[in-house]
# Entry
Amino acid sequence: MRAMFTAGNGPVQIPAETLANRVKELGAQIAQDYQGKTPHLICVLNGAFIFMADLVRAIPLPLTLDFISISSYGNAYRTSGEVELLKDLRLPIHGRDVIVVEDIVDTGLTLSYLLDYLEARKPASVRVAALLSKPSRRQVEVPIHYLGFEIEDAYVYGYGLDRAQFDRNLPFITSLHPEEE
Ligand code: IMP
Ligand code: MG
# Structure
């Protein structure tokens, strides 16, 4: 049987409790910033699904949510920057205060594509909540209003993020040793 919940031996390790505490802080910050408003959270599938589930429960405001799925071509670990829409939004965003919920911003190409796509639908505002960011890998500048953790350049997985589709169910974030990528 495949061993469960095994940490990688790379440089980035974020325990479940650290994730939980930070997500609660982000939720509280969002709740404060959006007081009196009804934010519309858009989860970028698949990687952000666990972050989204925890984040919305940390925002004590009336809110709505939706899901979008985009894929950037590339190998298992690196994006090529070519983006394809796999699953569109169900709900209109015109006039809404949108918060994009992303797992990780790496090159920024996916988020940049997505922000253009959303802006074209004339929301009242758009902000980004990203659990992780690898600033050293950025190719295009993208705004991140709510950031969980800045990390170094390593391939991370767990807590929704995959390693060749597996390990999304790890309750913590861990990373590959650079030689494994
Ligand atoms: P970007 O377009 O290069 O910013 O990367 C976008 C997407 O690639 C992210 O939303 C993730 O889905 C995926 N990705 C980038 N780096 C990692 C990683 O270290 N682990 C898991 N997925 C990643
Ligand atoms: Mg993603």
The chain has three helices and eight strands. Residues 16-33 form the longest helix (18 residues).
